[in-house]
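Changelog-adjacent note: as of this version, every example in the card shows the full chain rather than a window. The one below runs 331 residues end to end.
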Amino acid sequence: MALSLSGAGAHTGDRTPRGGNTLLRRKKTRDRLRTLGFLSPWLVGFSVFFGYPLIATVYFSFMHYNQIKEPEFVGLRNWSYVFTQMPLFGPALWNTLWLVVVMVALRVVFGIGIGLLVTKLKSGVGFFRTAFYVPYLAPPVAATVAFVFLLNPATGPVNEVLAAIGIDGPNWFNDPAWSKPSLVMLSLWGIGDLMVIFMAALLDVPKEQYEAAELDGAGPWARFRYVTWPNITPIVMFAVVTGVVQTMQYYTQALVAGKLASGVTIGPGTVIQPGYPDHSTITVPQLVYQLGFQNFNTGAACVLSLVLFAIAMAVTILLMRRKSGLLSAED
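Full-length structure tokens:
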């Protein structure tokens, strides 16, 4: 009888963990399905708007495809054409990287400077904040048209003012040496987005740290270096990374400025070669559009897109690294 009870107890003890494991597995499955349900909008958006286009771009980079006939596999012919036979690839890549380095750096510096200026004002903060932010709201095409008019070397008010004070103004968008700096000036005119971001970061710096630095005898530069900068470094990182990604896609302003400065009348069926003057404003996104939608060379356009994507990813990863980026090891 004792043996029987002992056997029954052992048998019951073996069955209970199995039932518990089954319930635990069901609970984990429900949790995974619930999590997947919450993630499904992002997964669908990522797959449709990033995953599939990226895979399709890689696929068509090895194909001869004019968007009419069926794709034809050509191996590395598109890659060889882009890197060895396309004369505008070098200037476009150089212009794009130049804009990334100069434009992003100056926008961050100007954004911090204007943010500091507005936050230190005692009165009229709302006026100056609005005045600096309103240009950012202007549509890119309208802002570019206005800027090209202002910098017109013959009739623009900027050169007229410079001539009145005895300075011979440059040709701006009509001069290859000044075309890219003119685009940078246009981007600095619409600095309102970064100003707002940096203002929020600067106002979030603890005032106690400034007070402690002043008691220690720290001057304005020392307070900025040892108090302000460490607190806004993550925001600077955000501004730099997003600025690099946006500038690698720089298209509208450079194209519109080149077309207007060239003086060519734009009408139905008019095809304007980008990059005026002397290919100084041509960028890789302009080449992608020209190859893919004007020359119907989809394969080469996909190769350029992948090169642009690879450079943007490499720069972003480099910046995000703790030792080689902007963040310190303690952050």
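Structural remarks: The longest helix spans residues 2-60.
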